[in-house]
Design a protein that fits this description.
Length: 392
C-alpha cells in the first residue's frame, strides 16, 4: 500500500523540480545588458536591478511563482498556468528594464536581453511543453493556443512596449530590408517545398510500384543528404553559373552562379529524400485487407491509389512535408552567404560586424517560423489521422 510520503513524492514533478533549480540559477546571472553602442559587449544587470525595486519585484515574483507551480505533477493545467505567469513576468521585466537602463546611458546606448533571460525563456517554455504533453490537447485546441500566443506577441510588438530593445532598434532601421528578407526566406522555404512535392510525390509513387527503381532512387537521394549544406550551396554556384553563361535567356529568368537560383536548387535537392521516402512508407502502410477489398470492388490501380492508398497514407506523407519545411527554413539561412537573401543576410552581416543584435534579427524570426511551421504541420498530421488513432 503506498505511503503518504510516496504519494507526496509522486505529486512533485521531477522535470518541474529540475526546471525550478535551473530557473533559480538563471535568476542569479545577468538578465539584461547595457552597452555604450551596438558593437561592444556591455555590462550585465541581474533581473532585480534592471529598474526600480517596485517595478522589478512583480516580474521576479511572477517568474519564481511560475517555476514553483511547475512542481505540481498532478495538476498539468496549474503547471501550464505557471509557465504563462512566468513568461508574463519575463516580458514585464523587459518592458520595465529597457527604458530604465537606457535613461542617461547616452545617445548610442543599447540594451539587450542577456543569458539569464534566454535561459529563463527556454526553461519556462519547457515547463509549458511538459504540461501540454501531459494534457494532450486535441489538434484544434493546439491551433487555438498557437493563434492566441501569436496574437499576444503581435499586440506586444505593435504596442511598442519592447521598442527600446536593441534588436528592435536594428529592425526599425531596416524595416524595408526585413520585409524583403522575410519574403525571400518564405519563397526559398515554401517554394522549394512545393517543387520537391511536385517532383517527389510522383517519384515516390513510382518507387512504391517498382522495387528496382526504389533500390536505385533512394540510395541516390540519401547520398545527396550526406553532402554538407554549405558544400551543396557551393556546388550549385559553378553549375548554375555555367548554365547562366551558356544557355540563352537563362540569366534573364534569374539563373546565375550566385543569388536565389543556386540556393533554391540546393534546397530542392535536400527536400527530395524525405518526400520520396515518406511517400513510399505512406503507401506501404495501407492495410493489405483494404487494398484487397478495393480490388474486389473492381477498382483500377489508379482508383485504389486515389481512394485507398493515398488517404490512408496521408499522415505519413504530411510528416515528410513537415520534415522538409522545418529543414528548409533553417537551411535557407545559409542562402545569405551566396546572395540568396532571406534572414541569413542579417545573420552574416551581424557576424561580420560583431553585432549580436543584428544576428538575432535574422535568427529569431527563423526560429519562430520553424516552430510555428512544425506546430501547424503536426496539427494537420493529427487531423488527417483516423479518429480512433487520434484518441488512442
Amino acid at each position: 500500500m503506498p505511503t503518504a510520503t510516496g504519494a507526496a513524492r509522486r505529486a512533485v514533478s521531477p522535470p518541474g523540480l529540475l526546471f525550478l533549480g535551473l530557473g533559480v540559477a538563471a535568476l542569479c546571472v545577468p538578465f539584461m545588458t547595457v552597452a555604450a553602442n551596438r558593437i561592444v559587449a556591455g555590462d550585465g544587470v541581474p533581473a532585480w536591478a534592471v529598474a526600480a525595486p517596485a517595478l522589478t519585484l512583480p516580474g521576479v515574483l511572477a517568474v519564481v511563482i511560475g517555476l514553483g507551480l511547475g512542481l505540481a505533477a498532478d495538476w498539468p493545467r496549474l503547471r501550464f498556468g505557471g509557465a504563462v505567469l512566468g513568461l508574463a513576468g519575463l516580458l514585464w521585466l523587459l518592458m520595465q528594464g529597457a527604458p530604465a537602463l537606457l535613461d542617461g546611458a547616452g545617445d548610442y546606448a543599447r540594451v539587450s536581453p542577456a543569458i539569464g533571460f534566454w535561459c529563463l525563456l527556454t526553461i519556462l517554455m519547457l515547463v509549458m511543453a511538459d504540461a501540454l504533453a501531459q494534457l494532450a490537447p486535441g489538434p484544434l485546441t493546439r491551433g487555438a493556443l498557437l493563434a492566441a500566443v501569436l496574437g499576444v506577441l503581435a499586440l506586444i510588438l505593435l504596442s511598442g512596449a519592447l521598442a527600446p530593445l536593441s534588436v528592435l532598434q536594428e529592425y526599425a532601421s531596416r524595416t524595408s530590408a526585413f520585409a524583403d528578407a522575410a519574403l525571400r526566406h518564405l519563397a526559398l522555404a515554401f517554394g522549394s517545398l512545393a517543387t520537391a512535392a511536385v517532383i517527389g510525390f510522383p517519384l515516390g509513387i513510382l518507387c512504391h510500384r517498382n522495387p528496382k527503381l526504389r533500390g536505385t532512387a533512394l540510395p541516390v537521394l540519401s547520398f545527396l543528404q550526406t553532402i554538407p549544406s554549405l558544400a551543396m550551396f557551393g556546388l550549385m554556384i559553378p553549375i548554375l553559373g555555367w548554365i547562366g553563361d551558356s544557355v540563352p535567356g537563362a540569366q534573364a529568368i534569374g539563373i546565375a552562379g550566385i543569388g536565389f537560383a543556386p540556393a533554391f536548387l540546393a534546397l530542392v535537392l535536400y527536400s527530395l529524400l524525405p518526400v520520396v521516402a515518406n511517400t513510399v512508407a505512406g503507401l506501404a502502410a495501407a492495410p493489405p485487407a483494404a487494398i484487397e477489398a478495393a480490388r474486389g470492388m473492381g477498382m483500377t490501380p489508379g482508383q485504389r491509389l486515389l481512394r485507398v492508398e493515398l488517404p490512408l497514407g496521408l499522415p505519413v506523407l504530411l510528416t515528410g512535408l513537415r520534415i522538409v519545411l522545418v529543414q528548409n527554413i533553417g537551411l535557407a539561412v545559409i542562402a545569405g552567404l551566396i546572395g540568396g537573401g532571406g534572414f541569413g543576410t542579417f545573420v552574416f552581416q551581424g557576424l561580420n560586424q560583431t553585432a549580436t543584435d543584428l544576428i538575432l534579427l535574422g535568427a529569431l524570426p527563423t526560429v519562430a517560423m520553424a516552430l510555428v511551421s512544425a506546430i501547424v504541420m503536426d496539427i494537420l498530421v493529427d487531423l488527417t489521422r483516423p479518429k480512433a488513432a487520434r484518441t488512442a
